[in-house]
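Technical annex B. To support the medicinal chemistry partners, we prepared a structural model of the target in complex with glutamic acid, based solely on the information shown next.
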Amino acid sequence: MSVMVPSKTPARITPGRQALDSALHQLGQAAEHLGLDDGLRTMLATPRRSLTVSVPVRREDGRMDVVQGFRVQHNVSRGPAKGGIRFHPGTDIHEVTALAMWMTWKCALVGIPYGGAKGGVAVDPAALTTRELERLTRRYVNEILPMIGPEKDIPAPDVGTDEQTMAWIMDTYSVNAGYAVPGVVTGKPMQLGGSLGRAGATSRGVQIAALSALGHAPEGVTVAVQGFGKVGALAAQYLADAGCKVVAVSDVTGAVYAPGGLDVAALRAHVADTGRVLGYRDADALGHDELFELDVDILVPAALEGVITEANAPRVRARLVVEGANGPTTPEADEILAANGTVVVPDILANAGGVIVSYLEWVQNMQACSWSEGEVGRRLRDLMESAYGEVKSTAAERGLTLRQAAHVIGVSRVAEAHQMRGLYP
Ligand code: GLU
């Protein structure tokens, strides 16, 4: 029999807990600025619904593993909950709650009629076979089935999931419903009701946000991108296409650097072949952390939370940080960057392109129609540019950073929705 001995050292603060603390700090600042009352603050600080599930997975060798899964609906006052599903070994309920909260402000900020949600499964998808991944996805979806639906909560891809994952989710939900329900997820393959332009939407939005914040012609502007995955690789490509010089990119294995500019298309082909940026022949290898300290114009963190911290923020030399990831900058780092004159285009604005085109996909699904890539692209650009304009002018009028202004706008819209609907009963 084992005896529980109370530990003398305090419990380790997980990255997820840190992300939630950051999200709560940002909400607290916005609530203070808006003068929200305590009841409303508490309501906005706590998720509306939160589910933790144990997901049994049959492995290829016959063993059964059990992994933790989560789905959190932070807020549903402005419409159905919306947000991705993350497969990552480090995810936990705190991280998923933070990510759901950021989705709430993001959707309100860009003016799409959704609340915020997020899902997660604490698993490394690269360690599973495709069949194991399919069984895991279907079983996880079954466990959260009562929460999701096209009018209730609409998942989408996030870190570690893709359009194949979305196809399995759509199928699992539809088989249970007895008919095809494309609108239950976004980021689907085209054949199942996906939208043209969804795959590169987050990256396209990052490009639009970066060029808006730059305020001048992009020719020769230098860029470093941390994370060369779904968001980072295409953000690098689109920025290069616009005339920027992408000089460094990193992934989990390391970073590559070419002061004269990387050929992003050739690098993407190298990554498609080898699975990593290291080994790309026309560049030097660089330590992963050195990328943050490069003398570039634009730094794009495009992977996970909490990578720009008080430890490395003093050495960030970029004059613009454009957040492709959710929550990459801690509040302490934010203050250091602001004091050093670095402008941060915050996640809930910079990476909103993904959920904007998710919304466009869902609208097409609900109307059983499909729009051209040009139509989708125009609507994405309009929504991104008008959100950027609102954030920029709110920041200037109220003396706020872009992140504070974005939160003030997002939080105030959700608070107004609550106040107008009133409290039932
Ligand atoms: N996972 C993406 C995000 O964090 C997209 C969410 C969505 O399309 O619903 O914004």
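Notes passed to the chemistry partners:
The pocket of glutamic acid is lined by residues 82-84, 156, 158, 186, 326, 351, 354-355, 358 (CB under 6 Å).
DSSP finds 13 helices and twelve strands in the chain.
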